[in-house]
Design a protein that fits this description.
The protein is built from 6 helices and 5 strands. By secondary structure, it is α+β, with helices and mostly antiparallel strands. The strands form 2 sheets. A 3-stranded antiparallel β-sheet has the order 3-4-5. The protein has a two-stranded parallel sheet with strand order 1-2. The chain is globular.
């Protein structure tokens, strides 16, 4: 994992202060840590989850490193003729499988973010499914499955805390998030194109958006993620300004 040390954040830019939550304490049932996590969910909706204080978290970091390394080695070297052969679903707006790149340059190379998506359901389905990973992803299939299983465990710990804090019946959230249920749960790896001197930066690498998921667990080695202020109008794109973000 040492080959993915975080890139130093540029000086002079503001940084948001988010709560740091211990995975070990959540897994141990620490009520104080659970309440701190819940309050962060009601405020920013984001928090840092410290993984390195528990073996399960370390295993998740190791799997994330494999995913990052695969993204760098595969997306950066495999041709644009081969990558799109890993097809997505036919349904519009469902991006839980396949390779995806929305814009290419005059040479046919990615101009904005590209990604590969690994669907949870097909990797855990008990019945026959017409699904097969391409060779450059199938060699890590056990890692992807293990990563999704561990992530699902952690997500359900969080869901359980939300159930208790919101005084909902046990299972209100957790019963809806099982690895074998048909869903759009996904492990997604993003790769951004390198900056080309003299090229316009008027198009963001990834547009402002809200994830259409219950919980998103993000691993990143490059700073720059922005989250909206509580009073920001994220409905009308015309009203979004730099002041809308933290």
């Amino acid at each position: 994992m040492d080959d993915f040390c975080p890139v130093p954040f540029p000086a002079g830019l503001s940084k948001i202060q988010l709560e740091k939550i211990s995975l070990a304490k959540l897994l141990a049932g620490d009520d104080e840590e659970a309440h701190k996590m819940f309050k962060a969910c009601t405020r920013e909706g984001f928090f840092y989850l410290s993984l390195m204080d528990h073996p399960k978290g370390i295993k998740m970091m190791e799997a994330a490193s494999v995913a990052c390394r695969t993204g760098k080695e595969s997306l950066g070297t495999i041709s644009m003729d081969e990558k799109p052969q890993y097809k997505g679903r036919e349904q519009i707006g469902i991006f839980d499988t396949g390779y995806r790149c929305t814009l290419t340059d005059e040479h046919g190379e990615p101009e904005t973010v590209e990604a590969f998506n690994l669907p949870q359901y097909e990797l855990f389905a008990k019945g026959p499914e017409n699904f097969k990973l391409p060779p450059w992803l199938s060699k890590h299939e056990d890692t992807w499955r293990g990563a999704m299983r561990d992530r699902n465990t952690v997500a359900n710990i969080i869901f359980g805390i939300l159930e208790r804090e919101l005084q909902l019946p046990s299972g209100a959230f957790t019963s809806l998030h099982r690895t074998t249920d048909r869903s759009s749960d996904v492990l997604r790896v993003l790769r951004y194109p390198k900056f080309v001197p003299g090229k316009s930066l008027d198009r963001p690498g990834f547009p402002p958006h809200g994830d259409a998921v219950s919980i998103a667990i993000l691993f990143t080695w490059l700073g720059g993620l922005q989250i909206p202020k509580a009073d920001a109008d994220m409905i009308d794109e015309a009203t979004e300004t730099e002041e809308s973000w933290r």
